[in-house]
Design a protein that fits this description.
This protein is of the alpha/beta class. Helices cover about 60% and strands about 10% of the residues. Among the domains are: about 10-335, ABC transporter transmembrane region fold, CATH 1.20.1560.10; about 450-520, Rossmann fold (3-Layer(aba) Sandwich), CATH 3.40.50. The chain has helices at about 10-20, 25-30, 40-70, 75-130, 135-145, 150-175, 180-190, 190-225, 230-235, 235-290, 295-335, 350-355, 405-415, 435-440, 455-460, 470-480, 480-485, 505-520, 535-550, 590-595; strands at about 365-370, 380-390, 395-400, 420-425, 430, 440-445, 525, 555, 565-575, 575-585. The strands form two sheets. Strands 6-7-8-3-9-10 form a six-stranded mixed β-sheet, with helices on both faces. A four-stranded antiparallel β-sheet has the order 2-1-4-5, with helices on one face. It is elongated and about 110 Å long.
Length: about 600
C-alpha cells in the first residue's frame, strides 16, 4: 500500500485542494488544447449557425400557418407552408444531431491528447513523483474524470455559441417585426446570465469538492484492494470498511449537495425566463386586443420570445453537467505544470539534449562529488560520493538499509538529478545526454519488478517487442525461468494476470531477469536480484550473469560484499557516504546465494 490506510487522500487530496481554487483559466487552456479538434469545433459552430437560421425560419412559417388558419384559408393554400415547416423541423433535428456528433468527436480528440500528455508527463516526472501520488487518483483522473469532458465539448461549448448567436438573431428578427417587444426582451434578457453567474460560482466550488472526494475514494479503494492480504493478516480489514464507508458517505453528500444547487439554479433560471416571457406576452396581448398589432406579427413574437431565453437557460444546465470534466482537466493541467526533477545541469544546451549520446561499451561513468536529496528528508540520501565505473566492470554496492544504494541506481537511471556535483560519461555531463538513448543502454532489475497482464512471452519481450520466440526462450533459460513457464497451461502464451499474481515472488524476479538477458544492455543495474531465490537458483543467476554478460558493466545492490566465481569491486555505503571501494576475489566455494544477498 502506498500510504497509511487510515489516512485517505493524503498529498493527492491536498494537491487537488490547491488545484481546485483559483485556476480560472481552465476554459482557455482547454480551448488552447484543441488544435487537433479545431476542425470539428468549427463544423459544430457552423451547425449552430445553421440551427439559428432554422429557428427563425420555423417561427416564421408557423406564425404564417397559424395566421392563415385563423383567417380561414383553405387547407390547400396551407399545404406548401406546412410542407416547408416539416422540412425545417426535420432539418433542425438533423443539424442538432450532427452538431452533437462532431462535438463528441472533438471531445474524443481532446481527451485522447490529454491522456497521452498525462501519461507522458507522469513518465517524465518519474518514480519519485509517482511514489508520492495515489495510483487510484491518477487512474480515476485519466478515465472517469476526463470522460466528463464529453459534456463540456458536446453540450456546454456548442450551447455557449448558441447562447450568443440565437438571442442576437431573435432580437434582430423581433425588432424588424415589432420594436416594442424587442425592447422588452433586450431589457429582461440579461437577467438570465446574471443569475447563472451568481449560482455558477457556488456550483463550481461544490463540483470541485465532489471531484476531490471521488478521486480520494478511488485512490483509497485501490490502496485497500492492493493491500487486502496485509490488512487481513493484521486484522485491519474491518477498520478499512469503516473508512471506505465514511469516504463514500462524504462523496454521496457532496453529490447530493451539487445536485441540489443544480436543481435550484434550474428553478431560478426557469422562473426568470418565464417572467420575462410573460411580460412580452402581456404587452403583445394587450396591443393585439386593441388592434395595434397584427395577428401574424403577434404570433411570430410569441414564438420567438422563448427561443431567445432557451439557449441561456440551457447554458446554465450544461454548465453543471460539464463542471466535473472541467475540474478533472484542472488537475491534469496541474500535473502537466509540475516541474520535472530531471532538469539539465547548467551549460547543457538544447542541441545537446536532443543529439548528444554516449556509448557505455567504451566510455566510463564518473560520479564527481554527487549529493542527492529527497524532498522532506532532513539528511541527504547521498553526500559527496565520487566513484568511477569502467566499462565491463563488476561492482557490488553494499551497506545497511538507507545507506543510499538504491539512490545511486536512481541517479544512473536519471529518475532523480544530483543536488550537488555531477555525473560524467566520457567527457560529457550525463544531464546533457538524450535521455531515451541513454536508458536504452541500461537494463534494470528492481527489488519488486512489475509484470503486466499479458503473456509470459510478452512480459519477457517488454523492451524488445520484435524479439523472436527463440530469443525469448533462450533468455528464459538463462534466467532459470524456462522450466516453470513451460509448465504453465499455455506455456509462453499463458496470461500472467495483473502484476503477475499467478507467479511467486521468485518467479516474477526470474521474468524480470529474462527481460534483461533478452535486451543484452551494456549496463546492468540490479537491486537485490536474488532476494526471493533459493541458494541453487541464486547460484544459477550469478553464473548466467558472469557468462552471458561477461563484457557488460554490472552494478549490483546487495547486503553481501562480493561476487561468486571471480573478482569484483566492492563499494560500501553508509548513511549516504562512500566508506570503501576495493577489488576483492572470493573463494570458489562461496555460494552465489551468500554473496549476492
Amino acid at each position: 500500500m502506498t500510504r497509511t490506510a487510515g489516512q485517505p487522500g493524503g498529498q493527492a487530496a491536498a494537491n487537488q485542494t490547491r488545484g481546485g481554487t483559483g485556476r480560472g483559466t481552465i476554459d482557455r487552456r482547454l480551448l488552447g488544447y484543441t488544435s487537433g479538434s479545431r476542425g470539428y469545433l468549427i463544423v459544430t459552430v457552423a451547425f449552430g449557425l445553421a440551427g439559428t437560421g432554422l429557428i427563425l425560419a420555423q417561427a416564421g412559417l408557423l406564425a404564417h400557418a397559424l395566421a392563415a388558419a385563423a383567417r380561414g384559408d383553405a387547407a390547400a393554400a396551407l399545404a406548401g407552408t406546412l410542407a416547408a415547416l416539416l422540412v425545417v423541423v426535420a432539418a433542425r433535428a438533423a443539424v442538432s444531431y450532427a452538431g452533437e456528433v462532431t462535438a463528441l468527436r472533438a471531445a474524443a480528440t481532446v481527451k485522447s491528447g490529454l491522456r497521452r500528455a498525462l501519461t507522458a508527463r507522469s513518465l517524465q516526472l518519474g518514480p519519485l513523483w509517482l511514489g508520492s501520488q495515489r495510483a487510484g487518483e491518477i487512474t480515476t483522473l485519466s478515465t472517469r474524470g476526463l470522460d466528463g469532458l464529453d459534456s463540456y465539448f458536446a453540450r456546454y461549448l456548442p450551447q455557449l455559441v448558441l447562447a450568443v448567436l440565437v438571442p442576437i438573431a431573435v432580437l434582430a428578427r423581433v425588432a424588424v417585426a415589432d420594436w416594442a417587444s424587442a425592447v422588452v426582451i433586450a431589457v429582461t434578457l440579461p437577467l438570465i446570465p446574471v443569475f447563472a453567474v451568481l449560482v455558477g460560482w457556488h456550483t463550481k466550488a461544490q463540483t470541485r469538492r465532489q471531484w476531490r472526494l471521488l478521486a480520494t475514494l478511488g485512490g483509497h479503494f485501490l490502496d485497500v484492494v492492493e493491500g487486502l492480504p496485509t490488512l487481513k493478516v493484521f486484522g485491519r480489514a474491518r477498520a478499512q470498511e469503516d473508512v471506505i464507508a465514511k469516504v463514500t458517505n462524504d462523496y454521496r453528500t457532496a453529490t447530493m449537495s451539487t445536485l441540489r444547487v443544480a436543481f435550484l439554479s434550474g428553478l431560478v433560471l426557469e422562473l426568470a425566463a418565464a417572467l420575462a416571457t410573460a411580460l412580452v406576452a402581456v404587452e403583445v396581448g394587450l396591443r393585439l386586443l386593441y388592434g395595434h398589432l397584427g395577428y401574424e406579427t403577434a404570433m411570430l413574437v410569441l414564438l420567438l420570445t422563448p427561443e431567445a431565453f432557451l439557449p441561456l437557460r440551457a447554458v446554465g444546465a450544461q454548465f453543471h453537467a460539464s463542471m466535473e470534466g472541467a475540474a478533472a482537466a484542472t488537475r491534469v493541467f496541474e500535473i502537466l505544470d509540475t516541474p520535472t526533477p530531471r532538469l539539465p545541469q547548467p551549460g547543457a544546451t538544447a542541441t545537446a539534449l536532443r543529439h548528444d549520446r554516449a556509448d557505455l561499451r567504451s566510455e566510463d561513468i564518473r560520479l564527481n562529488g554527487v549529493t542527492a536529496v529527497y524532498p522532506g528528508r532532513p539528511h541527504p540520501a547521498l553526500e559527496g560520493v565520487s566513484l568511477t565505473i569502467a566499462p565491463g566492470e563488476r561492482i557490488v554496492l553494499s551497506g545497511p538499509s538507507g545507506a543510499g544504494k538504491s539512490t545511486l541506481l536512481a541517479l544512473l537511471l536519471r529518475f532523480i538529478t544530483p543536488a550537488a556535483g555531477n555525473i560524467a560519461v566520457g567527457d560529457r555531463d550525463l544531464a546533457a545526454l538524450d535521455i531515451e538513448p541513454w536508458r536504452r543502454q541500461i537494463g534494470w532489475v528492481p527489488q519488486q519488478p512489475y509484470l503486466f497482464s499479458g503473456s509470459a512471452a510478452d512480459n519477457i519481450a517488454l523492451g524488445e517487442a520484435d524479439a523472436s520466440r527463440d530469443a525469448i526462450r533462450r533468455a528464459a533459460r538463462m534466467a532459470g525461468a524456462a522450466a516453470f513457464i513451460e509448465a504453465l497451461p499455455a506455456g509462453y502464451d499463458t496470461p500472467l494476470g495483473e502484476r503477475g499474481l499467478r507467479l511467486s515472488a521468485g518467479q516474477r524476479q526470474r521474468i524480470a531477469l529474462a527481460r534483461v538477458f533478452l535486451r543484452d544492455p551494456p549496463l546492468l543495474l540490479m537491486d537485490e536480484p536474488t532476494a526471493h531465490l533459493d541458494p541453487a537458483s541464486a547460484r544459477q543467476i550469478g553464473t548466467a550473469i558472469d557468462t552471458a554478460l561477461a563484457d557488460r558493466t554490472v552494478i549490483l545492490v546487495s547486503h553481501g560484499q562480493g561476487w561468486d566465481g571471480g573478482g569484483c569491486r566492492s563499494v560500501r555505503l553508509d548513511h549516504g557516504k562512500l566508506m570503501s571501494s576495493a577489488r576483492v576475489a572470493w573463494p570458489a566455494d562461496t555460494t552465489a546465494a551468500g554473496v549476492l544477498r
